Amino acid sequence: LETCEIWAASVMGGAIVFALLHTGSAAMIGASGGVFGLLGAWAVFDHRETRRRTSLRRAALRSAGICIAVLLLSVLDAALRQSALAWQAHLGGFLAGAALSATMETDPVAP
After folding, report:
1. 8 Å CB contact between 108 and 1
2. Contact 24/82 with Cβ under 8 angstroms?
3. Could you say which DSSP state residue 103 is in?
4. What is the pLDDT of residue 41?
5. Nearby residues of 70 by Cβ (< 8 Å), 6 or more positions away
6. What is the pLDDT of residues 82-111, one digit of tens each?
7. Average pLDDT across the chain, whole number
8. Mean pLDDT (whole number) for 65-77
């Protein structure tokens, strides 16, 4: 799989989770779901690399920190823009990107 496939799956995952969780009638574009999907993929690949170099505990703590940072970025964005943020698309994209990359044996952009 390539990075663009992770992007596309993350956009679709974001759209699906948005459709399932959003209660209003607002539209959603989906590009941010793709960005968050790439962040989810990065978190998985970073966990694998950190796990190879250090202990499982350290890799898990680092991964948790990445997930918290992504969550805080989303909350900060919503607070600064004071707008209707499609957090559902961000969540769905992140989960789709992480899930898809977890099935991959190697990072598609690694040398």
Report:
1. yes
2. no
3. T
4. 93
5. 36, 39, 40, 43, 94
6. 666 778 888 999 999 999 999 987 766 665
7. 86
8. 87
CA dihedral 70, 75, 80, 82 (to 10 degrees): 140
* Residue 19 token pair: 């459709």
Measured CA to CA, the distance from residue 64 to residue 85 in angstroms comes to: 23
Tokens (6 digits) for 80: 């600064």
Compute the distance between CA of residue 95 and CA of residue 101 in angstroms, rounded to an integer.
10
Does the pTM surpass 0.90? The reply is no
> Exposed, middle or buried: residue 25 (CB in 10 Å: 0-12, 13-18, 19+)?
exposed
Residue 57 vs residues 47, 67, 81: alpha-carbon distances, Å = 11, 15, 36
Alpha-carbon distances of 31 from 10, 11, 57, rounded to whole Å: 9, 6, 33
Residue located via tokens 């995952």: 13
User: Phi, psi (5° rounding) for residue 105?
Assistant: -80, -35
pLDDT beyond 80 at 23: no
Q: Which two tokens stand for residue 63?
A: 């991964």
pLDDT at residue 110, rounded to an integer: 60
